[in-house]
Amino acid sequence: xxxVYLLRHAKSSWDDLDVPDFQRPLSERGREAxxxxxxxxxxxxxxxxxxxxxxAKRATETWELMxxxxxxxxxxxxxxxxxxxPDAIVAWLNQLQPxxxxxxxxxxxxxxxxxxxxxVADGKKKALKRMRTKYPTGALAVIQFDVDGWNSVGDGTGYxxxxxxxxxx
Length: 169
Hints:
This protein has one domain: Phosphoglycerate mutase-like (Rossmann fold, 3-Layer(aba) Sandwich). About 35% of the residues lie in helices and about 25% in strands. It has five helices and seven strands, in the order E-H-E-H-E-H-E-H-E-H-E-E. It has a seven-stranded mixed beta sheet. Helix 2 (about 55-70) links the parallel strand 2 and strand 3 (about 75-80). Helix 1 (about 30-45) runs parallel beside helix 2 (about 55-70) and helix 3 crosses helix 4 (about 110-120).
């Protein structure tokens, strides 16, 4: 069994329109939501063994606010995860080391929304409805794969265990 925690970065700030998109920081709402989501994950036993985080400022700030709660698993920050396509996201998952059982990806839409929709074949009905309606900032999809290795993770191989938005915590 493999588990992907797919977390869209927390709410970003639009206060300074001169800041390049890659450098946009979190808003106050985002800075409050990120540690709250981490507390939820820890309380629910959703602690990743590894983290793959976009290099965009709002994604790295999200992880930095979550790390004190979730501990310090293996973390890889990659600028290429910024606005990555669903195919690229699946390719990263397929290359994970086999001993890793769970990974948290911190990144962006539209890629996260699209890859979640593609990977999930089934799931809990309420979670599926929420995820398919809107994948807001700070939202977490917990997708389980009944596979032996990460190289078997792909389209239609996952089960959506839960979909949680910051306002749900």
